[in-house]
Amino acid sequence: MRKINVGLIGFGMIGSGVVKALLNRRQLLKEKLGLDINLKKICDKDLTSNRGISIKKGLLTRDAREVINDPEIDIIIELIGGIHPAKEIIISALKNKKHIVTANKLLLAEEGKGIFRIAKEYDREVYFEASVGGGIPIVRSIREGLIANRFLNILGIVNGTSNFILSKMTDEAMEFEDALIKAKEKGYAEKDPSLDIEGWDSAHKLIILCVLAFGRWVDLKKVYVEGISNIKALDIAYAQDLGYVIKLLAIAKVVNGELEARVNPTLLPKEHLLSSVSGNFNAIYINGDLVGEQLFYGEGAGRLPTSSAVVSDIVEIATKIVEGKRFHRRGLDFKSNIKRVRRMNEVLAKYYIRFSVIDKPGVLARIAHILGFHRISIASVVQKERREEKVVPVVMLTHEAKENNVRVALKEINRLSVVKEKSVVLRMER
């Protein structure tokens, strides 16, 4: 039976899950695959913390070079995260003719183009199923199962922390701050949750989805990113009454040959496939010209789902090695027909806008006049409270309008003496 040797760099929460899976499922993988996947070396700075796994001391090292330079190791798993030294480790490993499996979405989003170029030069593979959606097999599905499709759009709930918070706000009428505390108590939010709640984690994953589906590496600076920290329980309640739910979406769509890539809180109709995705779960909605609508759903993070994705990548590379197949990075080298990445101020969308205004005659007319002047058509108006000369919320839904027009109009409206707080604006998707 052919043995494939694997080295792991990064023995943290996810790394320990991968180690446990490789050790505990070794016999099962032998039976299913007819080959032996052998964990030969584990590298981490911390070799003393209890991971709940019995490891032979000879497997452990603090020196990544012992893994990279081991001539018997075929595949290296990088799970340390971040850009440095992960980038240098991966490049060095590729040049040493090692295949790579990684869950590092930040590194791939910002440095992936160069890494894949080096992998091609040295005829090695970089697999990254665990970088988007945890245990959801979205990467392999786009690269292989749906490879004949031209994709029209992708909408993704790809951050479990933000989805848990918005679900709590929706189901229990919590304010953002209270829901964030609950997320931390459950272990879904980091001590510093800014990457999650401000949308940057979703943006990194969106870049990976864009290259898979549309063949275009998108500079992070060209992705519009807006988080959920300014969402109020009041807006959640209004959205529900209007037949919508609010989700943090990673959105990619092709419009007239141009790619739109953005992350923002979004009003979705309650009947949309993504609307019922709650808690810390992830889901990715894909619309392909041949297959139509597809929804991929599951746990988007955590030790077990992520280790499942990592092991699946190891198995695929190991199988190719044994069968002597040529490595060709399927689904990454195709020529993109995208003309350019569209600027956010060019985006067309429907909008939810909440104004905080003094309740007196003529206020709505003034706001409507400014919106109309900037070519923004009102679809409906909701004003539940009536308190003469008091500040009340007024919600307007618009027909499709250009983002730049909405921004200019709101800047003008927010300067009115009758408007007492900065207006809240959220985009809508069908």
How would you describe the overall organization of this protein?
This protein has helices at residues 13-24, 26-33, 64-68, 86-95, 105-121, 138-145, 160-172, 176-186, 194-197, 200-214, 233-241, 303-323, 363-373, 403-413; strands at 2-9, 35-43, 60-61, 75-78, 99-102, 126-127, 151-157, 224-225, 244-255, 258-269, 281-288, 292-299, 348-358, 378-382, 391-398, 401-402, 424-428. With 430 residues, the chain is of the alpha/beta class. The strands form 2 sheets. Strands 7, 8, 9, 10, 11, 12, 13, 14, 15, 16 and 17 form an 11-stranded mixed beta sheet that branches. Strands 3-2-1-4-5-6 form a 6-stranded parallel beta sheet, with helices on both faces. Strand 5, helix 5 and strand 6 form a beta-alpha-beta unit. The mean pLDDT is 95.
How is this structure best summarized?
This protein has 430 residues and is an alpha/beta fold.
